[in-house]
Specification:
The protein is 42% helix and 20% strand. The protein is α+β, with helices and mostly antiparallel strands. Strand 4 and strand 5 form a beta hairpin.
Length: 290
């Protein structure tokens, strides 16, 4: 039986392979949360069992086994949940370098262009599985189950097959691929990471990682942009949102703290009292009595 890839190997070496293309079977019986992953290559992630969440600087997504992802190279956070039945997380990863993608677009110019329309770059694309794609993924599983060494030629053929089909079915979506994460404007990346993660519970250290910066550089650049520290800015933004929600009579304190990314009600109450001098419940009652 072929040894499954362990969680420790998803980043090194499996997701940092120097080869131009690789098909990888990944099985795990352990759930992971917000693992820091550096993708040096693009990757199709075909989820078979469990659930997967991927977070880039300005955007995040969660998928189930009925979907799959195309991720671009760059820093991201990944969380994996095992299936409720069977207790496993299973996926097939199709990793390939940017040159193969560029070569494909050169040979298939009509598959990724749509006149002069401009597209916003995206760090990932989400696709729903259809009968063709289900059979395609099954074919990858059969190839991997054989235990034979896969030639680069065969893997390229399978990648070509997949790209031709996806480009034909989703021509506009494929144009949104982000090819150069490392050349993104640093200020824009920080702004995206900050505004997109106000209510996610993402730590400042994780935000720095998503922006491909050291913690000290991230804090320094953040202060130049927002005029304050990331911790203080995030707290202020969350509390402003909390205050607005509390003014609505239908909002409950016990629900608000979870929506703002807090792990416990007590920590939320402490933060709110620090910002407004009263508890969330007192603030809500005072607002409704005005």
């Amino acid at each position: 039986m072929k040894k499954p890839v362990s969680p420790a190997n998803t980043q090194d070496p499996s997701l940092n392979l120097p080869r131009e293309v690789s098909i990888i079977q990944y099985n795990s019986g352990v759930a992971t949360g917000n693992s820091k992953i550096t993708l040096h290559q693009n990757m199709f992630s075909f989820l078979l069992e469990g659930a997967k969440t991927v977070q880039y600087a300005g955007k995040h997504v969660s998928i189930n086994p009925h979907q799959f992802l195309l991720l671009t190279a760059g820093n991201c956070l990944m969380s994996e949940k095992i299936a409720a039945t069977g207790g496993l997380y299973r996926s097939i990863l199709f990793v390939f370098d940017n040159q193969l993608l560029t070569d494909f677009f050169v040979r298939h110019p009509r598959s990724h262009t749509s006149g002069s329309q401009q597209y916003q770059q995206e760090p990932f694309l989400v696709f729903d599985k259809d009968p063709f794609l289900v059979n395609f993924i099954d074919s990858l599983g059969i190839i991997l189950a054989s235990g034979q060494s896969l030639s680069v030629e065969l893997q390229k053929v399978k990648l070509e097959e997949l790209l031709v089909y996806v480009s034909g079915c989703y021509p506009d979506a494929v144009n949104k691929l982000q090819y150069a994460n490392n050349t993104a404007n640093a200020d824009m990346l920080i702004r995206q990471a900050a505004t997109a993660n106000i209510c996610t519970g993402t730590t400042v250290e994780e935000l720095a990682f998503l922006c491909n910066m050291s913690l000290s550089s991230f804090k320094r650049n953040f202060a130049k942009i927002f005029g304050t520290s990331p911790q203080k800015w995030l707290l202020e933004q969350r509390m402003q949102i909390a205050a607005q929600m509390l003014k609505n009579s239908g909002s409950k304190v016990g629900e608000i703290y979870m929506e703002l990314g807090y792990e416990s009600l007590s920590s939320f109450i402490q933060s709110f009292k620090q910002a407004y001098g009263v508890t969330p419940k007192q603030y809500q009652q005072e607002s409704l009595n005005v």
